[in-house]
Write a structure and sequence with these properties.
Elements: H1 32-39, H2 44-55, E1 60-62, E2 67-68, E3 75-86, H3 91-97, H4 104-110, E4 116-120, H5 130-138, E5 143-150, H6 153-159, E6 163-168, E7 177-182, E8 186-188, E9 191-193, E10 198-202, E11 205-209, H7 214-236, H8 241-246
Helix pairs in contact: 2-7, 5-6
Amino acid sequence: MADPATTRPQKPLTGRVPPQAVRRREFPALPAEILQRYARIEDLTATASDAMDKLGLAGVVPASVLAPQLPAARLVGQAVTVRNTERPEAVGAAAQAGQSRMGEHEAYNLAEPGNVVVIEGLPGVSNLGGQSASVAHRAGCAGAIVDGGFRDPRMARALGFPIWARGVTPITGKWRLQTAEINGRVRIGGVAVEAGDLVLADESGVAFVPYAQAQAVLQEMEHIQAGDHRQQRDIAAGVDLQTLASTKYK
């Protein structure tokens, strides 16, 4: 695992949220070799789910809850987190004042290329729009997981920027929500996620692997995949059903 110490200079903040709302400016990066091995797992989130079951970890959200907007897309990257809450003032008053309190741009500012934006948001309103997706994409973010709504799916699709979310909405979040924390703990589909945790996503759903467990989960996933491959070869070779049923593959 990577050493938490880093010599990278701290990035200046954008001011989109108060400085005290930024819980962490950086987190240790997982080794590239670990991420590459995860990316080679074929049935990504299903294998992660089986591996995490064996290790007693809960961290998987199905696509019936967080639906992929680009069905063929896959993600393997560490989380930069955003926690949004409801604004206290009336929508009309907030809109007339014209001051947005959405601060996800600070997460993009702090992100390293390949990180995944993970937003604990509000349902039915946009926690990430087309312009926001464009900024995230420009910053090198690999995609976004939104426990809530997002809008302007056409722009995200045109960028090839994958998003998993509870749904699409035309309703802006500018006057309805405020960003409370960047890179703190969020809850996504009931799963606690910390900045730096590993995000895996595909057409089946999303898996969140705690940073400290990334190596153990990977090893179990590779073991499971090797067993699946052996079983597939036996099926293709015509091994009889009795033998298939009695063979322990994983």
